[in-house]
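Record type: ASSEMBLY
Status: queued
Input:
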Amino acid sequence: MRFGVNYTPAVGWFHSWLDFSASDTARDLEAIASLGADHVRIFPIWPVVQPNRTLIRASALRDVATVVDIAGSFGLDVNVDALQGHLSSFDFVPSWLDSWHRRNMFTDPDVVASTAAYVEALAGAVADKPNLLGISIGNEVNQFAHAPHPAPHDTTAEQGHAWAGAMVAAARRGLGSRAVGLEARHGSADSVPSAAGSRRPAAGSRSGPLVTVAQYDAAWYDDAQPFGPEHAADHGDATVTHSWVFNGTAALHGPLGAGSVRHGEYLLQLAAAWNREPGRPNWLQEVGAPTNVVPPSDAAAFTEQTVRHVAGAQDVLGVTWWCSHDVSRSLADFPELEYDLGLFTNDGALKPAGEAFAALARSGITSAVEPPSTALVLDDVLGDGSPRYGTRADCAPGGRFAAAWLALAESSHDGRGPQVVLRSRLADEALRTARGITSIVEVPTDLDGTALSVAHPATMP
Amino acid sequence: MRFGVNYTPAVGWFHSWLDFSASDTARDLEAIASLGADHVRIFPIWPVVQPNRTLIRASALRDVATVVDIAGSFGLDVNVDALQGHLSSFDFVPSWLDSWHRRNMFTDPDVVASTAAYVEALAGAVADKPNLLGISIGNEVNQFAHAPHPAPHDTTAEQGHAWAGAMVAAARRGLGSRAVGLEARHGSADSVPSAAGSRRPAAGSRSGPLVTVAQYDAAWYDDAQPFGPEHAADHGDATVTHSWVFNGTAALHGPLGAGSVRHGEYLLQLAAAWNREPGRPNWLQEVGAPTNVVPPSDAAAFTEQTVRHVAGAQDVLGVTWWCSHDVSRSLADFPELEYDLGLFTNDGALKPAGEAFAALARSGITSAVEPPSTALVLDDVLGDGSPRYGTRADCAPGGRFAAAWLALAESSHDGRGPQVVLRSRLADEALRTARGITSIVEVPTDLDGTALSVAHPATMP
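Status: finished
Output:
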């Protein structure tokens, strides 16, 4: 199981791309490496790299490549996210998608082609780096399919698949031959499927950079969000989840309640349920301890318990903490919680959560090889097999499926939460066998639940 | 009368601020100086300089100062526009005004304070440059008070005055002692008025950098636009107009029709009518020959005739042509006409309009010292003295006032269009005397007209 950190530059936050400093970057990455982390995730700002639809700035790509090299000098692998897009409540949308030029960024052919060109160019700029962990298409780009983002909101799930497929293909074109290894090994909508049913020996190992699609949790919890679980599970080389307990979870369970410290584990099991191929790696790419629902005094315990529960899931590629450095109070307008998510203070002092993270990273903790044998059935279809609207609300904080999963997890003999199996795939014995599922549990019929809002209310200013 | 050019960088358009090159800038400015121009107007990109509300990038300010120095080395003065904002159909709005952070940029106290801080810092960064012509608050910022810009559209005229006053004051703070001279000489809402009625000896001369508020022509032509003539005339040290005949004028009159080649002159006379102090300079800060309504074969004639008519107006500070260089066809999504507005091609060849401009600039042509003695009355108030909705529509292309003004201009003995006097100020004899108005003409009662749209339809993609 890999340990990493989402890298938030101490000086100038992500605006530092406008004044790129190799020495500032090196100081930050040296600190991150000192935690025992093995990778970072980095975030170029989309309109800075591609200010015009047909202008991809070579110097910006060089800066990204330089960061990857600096990280490598400290023994860190790097995941590069392309489309930011959205970061910590701020949107960075190119002017060619705004006002007079407002178009659906997921469906307009010119926009999709040029966005793909950017993803390809970015992947190509770092393709030869030995320490490239992977390319994510962008950070929670599915936010742009919803208000309050001013883009048109008429994207369908099918269009979302076409878009995600195009972006993953673009990233792979950029990576060239280095992308091939994983394509052959992990089936996805974007590549030739490998033999079904074969379990992958070790989720963390890999033969080339991963291409992934990162979404915020409305994909899992909000039936109205056009990008759903399939968009995470059907594209790229691993299924990505982002765990933020300000989504109602911590309000429901308390900062250190089982539902809160198991939220990352739970998302990983949800992800695994939607994967079409057993053994596809799942990546908890973002998880953090937001101060609006987790008091600073609980942050270290929250961190430790979260990671230990994550390690109880199978096929965990890794966990990537959000984030490295607190945001400077000299920068305005961040939601309060966003200032304090760092493992380090803004001036570089290690915080208690950072100490907890470092202890775990250095402990040699690994994720489980054998999956939990029990699986809870998720009703993703109606009796006639058609898709069921409401499946995602059931999974959301406060939803009946979420409650049933948590109850099972807390009563398990080994402390590990159960796997999840979709009703639509329940009859697939080969799949169940390949996933190591020997016991099927139904959500109790008398269990009720009401999903809480998952639209990140806490990140609204 | 000053001759200048709006500077559109040949390499990378305004995105070149992200990759600032002193040598590219020098090559472009040397070419502009070769036309005989005495000044340029330059356009930093707002979110590039101020990516966070409380982060004003020192290096970006240094780049702006460097451009001013390079221009000086070629004998060019420089006007620096602060809030871009809007340029050639593209909006550049900081992320702290978008999506979760959407606020009214003209009224939110935090936003106004931070915007003022930027204007002050920018003015301060160039305050000591001997060749600083002035600071404009921003390019056509009033566009943001209207759709399709996503900002809230509930700004009132009064709030617009408060905003403009705050921005002009901020620019003057940045300019420090160099701003004082003009403040003492030209009354405005933002400074102590000088003795009313005194004519200024020469509009083009100046004792310090000008502070101006630049608006697109909806301010003059669209009664629904919150920013109106008073916002241009009551703030700063000169009244700025932007003349674009794609606003319906050329459609009505033809590319070389009198209404088209007199459109710049007409706007200058409208501006003078709203000035509270006689002799306040008026600046035709943008005028160009858009190919969608002026064929390239007419561009030189359009340029020459426009400038000659402008010179027939009184108190003309100058004319600043849009623009220096064609936009590279390698950049996407510009409205077609925006690619071809340069006096030079993108690779630096002088175009016929450039030759015409250069001949005029070198000819020593001056604007009239004595104002036209005839003035046409503009009904800005109703019989009871209250403001009249419809005044601006009357002035718009196709409006009855515009038609009457043009008829008078074409029948004048000296070829100069008449002045304009507001009904609300008609009884002010001292003002009329100071303006040199000896003959009052009313719009014929039997004249009818229908205003055309002025919302820049041609710049919509």
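Annotation: Chain B touches chain A through 38 residues (CB under 8 Å).
Annotation: Residues 181-187, 191-206, 455-461 of chain B have pLDDT under 50 and may be disordered.
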